[in-house]
Structures are given as structure tokens and as C-alpha cells.
Design brief:
Layout (H helix, E strand, L loop, with lengths): L3 H4 L2 E6 L3 H15 L3 E6 L3 H7 L16 H14 L8 H19 L1 H11 L7 H11 L3 E5 L4 H12 L3 E4 L15 E4 L2 H9 L7 E3 L6 H7 L5 H7 L7 E6 L6 H16 L3 E6 L6 H11 L3 E3 L5 H7 L2 E4 L3 H8 L3 E5 L5 H4 L9 E4 L2 H10 L5 H14 L6 H12 L3 H6 L1
Helix pairs in contact: 2-19, 4-5, 5-6, 7-8, 11-14, 12-17
Length: about 425
Amino acid sequence: MLSHRTKSKRVLAVSYGGGHVLMLIPVLKYLESQGYDIQVLGLTTAAASLRNAGFSPLGFRDILRPEDTRAIEHGTRLAEEMHQVNKVNSLEESIAYLGLSYADLEDQLGIEAAQQEFERIGRQSFLPLNPLRRFFDWLQPDVLLTTNSPRAELASIRIAAERGIPSVGVLDLFGLGSHNDIPADYVCVPFQQAADNLVNRGLQRSAMTVTGNPNFDWVYQSSITESNAPVWRQDHQIQSDDLLALYAMKPGWDEVEELIVCCLERALALKPELKVSVRPHPNSNRQVAENVIRRLGAAAFLDDTTPLPLATEACDILITHKSTVAVEAALFGKQVALFHSNRDYSSYAIPLNLYDWGTFSTTVEEGTKVLTSLQKDSEEVRQQRGAKVRKAWNCDGLCHTRIAKVVIQALVPKTQDKVA
């Protein structure tokens, strides 16, 4: 039983949207169930996910003051071209976020330098320290929980350090590239290789705990429940001996997507049992996927309605370019064919080869050879592979509790921690 004093401890979570906020939501729910006071700053697209999970997220609009005329002017100007309807909470939030962040950039660099930096890299130039100071002044948190993003998440870690407040950062994937170097007091990583990647760049191993990523725990739950994949395959006329590839497209069209389709065109001509489910990215134009179907012919079909978890579970092979859906497919034990136009995958792609999860191709010849050589796995082989990858990634349904434990430990005074 937690004491009253422990129950009053306040956790401030700061997160952008996508996989980052989904990674934190199970942790926050668990901490809330244990009596901790949860306050969440949900940035850009994170607000909708947080509301759907039952939280009442804060935003920059909550700290915008009438006297912030410079920020309001900048925000109004920038929101005219940058506000994304149905993605960000509201136009008012966009004005506040963009305006306060840009005004803070001017405070840091000066008017002319801020303009040049924003023109060069846009919102990536933001490190809104003063806006985050307002949140810390207002909420008086006891611990910070955030993830590996620049801008407001990085700013929150710096303000926590400035205030002497412990911080916990959660890494989502492999820790490739210096943008994943979380300067938090405690860092949670999904699997051991990610910790090694961070240590190789000079981060302290003593600050890291291997916890897994809660955003992938749905794969574990699916692995222990009866699957709907056989019924889905039957409904889509996929025969038992067909080799079904799920082509998970990225938004837009580039040379890598062209590479993938060229490989599929050749492979389909050589491998009659190969079938292709083409899944357009939610942020892409459906017409692009329809053009792919026309190129691939009768062996391909468009599927943009099946829930992604079911589509992933139903396929035999996952084909994509630098996407987390490749990790999810590997956790299911699926074969993965990963394409990229640059061999420097340690910096730019997902190294599935670390655990023999899949293949890596950069040319039409390589990709065609890979796709034509893939054979249908037995269910036993797939289950063995999936169990191996899930073990490596600590995907056991308990990732959120391990991260929560790190947060709770961060609240223990350092002197007490040493005595313990």
C-alpha cells in the first residue's frame, strides 16, 4: 500500500504524437492506478490519443497570456500555412505552440538569426525553454517522464535538470543517431542492442534500464490469443499455399518505393504463389497505391481498411522501407524484407539483421533475388522466430510496469537511494 505522501507525487509527462505518446500512455495509466498525480503536456497530434485514453492533456494554449503579443503575431502568421486540420488539437493550439516557440527562438538567437534558422529547418529549430519553464512553474512536478524527441521534450529535460527535478526518458527504437541521445537522469531502452548503441556514443550505461517498449505489447497479447488471421485470409481468397506479402507503403513516392515496386514486378513474374496486399500509408494519396496495383496486376490487391495489427498477423512477409511496422512484423515472427537506397543502414535504416529478422536490399537485383528466394514458413518456425524476437525486445506485456518502476525509483531521494 502506497503512503499518502507517495500518492501526492506529481508526474509531468511531455510527449509529441505518434508512437511516442502511445508508448507512454500505458505507463501513465499504471502510475495513475497506483495513486500518482498525472499531468500530461500533449503536443501537436498527441492530444487526441491522450483524450481517447481518458486523460485531459494540457497544451501551449494553456500558458499563452494576453501580453504575449509577439508570440500571438508569430503564431497567427505561421499557423496560416502550418496548421494541420484534424491532426493538431485546434487552431488556437497551433497558434500558441508555433508562436511561443518562435518567440523563444528569437529570445535565444536574436530576430535575424532566428528567422534564418527557421527558414533552414522549420520547427526543428525550436527548443522552447521559456514555455516549458511556465509549465514547471505552474505544475511543480516531482518527476518528468518524456521520450527521445528534440524540441519540447528535450527542453523539458533541460528545465528539469535546471530545477533539480529527476527526469526519465524513454527510447522508442534502436537508438541510431545522436538525435536519440536522451540527456535524462534515467533512460529506458527497448532492448539491449539499443543500450549498446547509446553507450557507443558516450552515454552512461548506469543510467539505462532495458524495459521494452509498451507500444509493441499488443503483439504479445495477440500472440497468446486466438488469431483472426486464418478467417481474414479465407475471406480474401488467399490459399493455404500462397505466399502473402504485405507491402506497407510510406507516405509520398520516392526512389525507394519505386525500387520496391520494380522488385515486386519481377518477383511476381517468377513466383506464381506470391500475392501482394498493398497498404497505403494513412498520410498518402490513395491514388498512388492504386497505380501500384495496376503495375503489379491480378496478384496484388489494395487493402486500406483492415486494422494494421490483423493485416500484419495475416501476412507471411512484410515488405517496407524504414518503418516500425517492420519491427511489429518481426515480433510476430514474420519474414521481413527491408528496402533502402543507402547501404549505411546503421545510420538510416532499421537493422533487422541484428537478430536475423529479415533481409536488406538496395538494388532491384538484390531485392528480386530476396523476394523470389523466400519460402512459406511453417507455423512452428514462425512461432519460434517470434518468440526469439519478443524475448530480445522484452515484449511480454509488462513493459509499462518496468518503465513505471524506473519513474517511481527516480522519486527516491538520492541519499536514500544510496543507503538502500
